Amino acid sequence: MTAVQKVAIAGAGVAGLATAIFLAKAGVEVDLYDAQPALSTRGSGITLQGNALRVFDELGVWDEVSAAGNAFEGLNLRAPGPGAPVVAALPDLKTGGPDYPSTMGMSRPDLARILLGAAERHGARVHFGTRVTGISQTDDTVAVEVDGEPAGTFDLLVGADGLHSAVRELIGIHVSPEQTGMGIWRTFVSLPPDVDRSELYYGGPMYIAGYTPTGDDTMYAFLVEAAQDRSHVSAEEARRIMVEQSRAYDGPWNHIRADIEAGADANYTWFTRHLVEAPWNRGRAVVIGDAAHSCPPTIAQGAAQGLEDAAVLSELLTERDAVDQALWDSFHERRVARAKAIVDASVQLGQWQLDGVRDADMGGLMFGVAQLTAARA
Q: What's the pLDDT tens digit per position in 11-66?
């Protein structure tokens, strides 16, 4: 007996699709609504650490994810300037346990495609081009309105609809992402022959320059700068800016620049942070993933934390027989402090750079996060 028989989910991102898979596998009737007209086929890359890979195995998609991504161990730190010498080769903790690589890079569209396919195979109904616009609750149910029309009555509504969550606002949680002071240029390029793991460059004109292999022949590269308004920059100008700002970085960046000059897209976003304090639910509606917490990608834990939200919530919903206060207390005990630790650490890494702190213990902070995430949520 599960605590729910019929669930609505808002948002077809990582957290929403993972929740749909977990619940549908358990026999729960799932309707997922996403405002986008279709699954996106565009996007850059994503870095996934072992605790995320462990959840993919629990979802039953690890073989597909492994085949589509690029798994590796360790992290290189390079210096800016001629030759871009490797100044440190750091080992990674296997936060997912010994059965999984420490880190994997992959294309975001590939990951979305895999998760959507699994959700639909297990019977979840996914409705693109639809937005949750209203809810009303009783003690035992939540009636959901989609695009201004009644969509049905459910045992639970899961708001996994991202940074600017409509569900979060509808249930009266007035928390919004805040800028942290940094912005990031991203591009998706071909894989240079001498790159086999993530590499980061600290120093030079950018706060961080880096890249992660995402497949046998693809790579995600990025530059982190002080946040600026880039909203009116054309595609051609974006490529020019990213090329010029990366000229201080040698080695594989020469290959990256050539791909950008040949037409690879350059996209820009700001780093943000927010955290919904407990409780994340209001009655029979709850927010998870980026709707509940967001952080800069300085520790590469954003997607992993959304996956953990989905895993813990789904476990409680499928192993208990009632959506009661004990269920919510258990959920918040297992998720809120852990998510807060990740948000705080991710922001701290960036703040040290913004403040020019030269003796910051970045390695110690990242090792502490790895130890935290190695323990199951």
A: 999 999 999 999 999 999 999 999 999 988 777 799 999 999 999 999 999 999 99
| Amino acid in position 166 | A
- How far is 249 from 258, CA to CA, in rounded Å? 13
Tokens at residue 159, please? 């708001």
pTM over 0.90: yes
Instruction: Give the pLDDT score at 130.
Output: 98
pLDDT digits (tens, 9 = 90+) for 145-161: 999 999 999 999 999 99
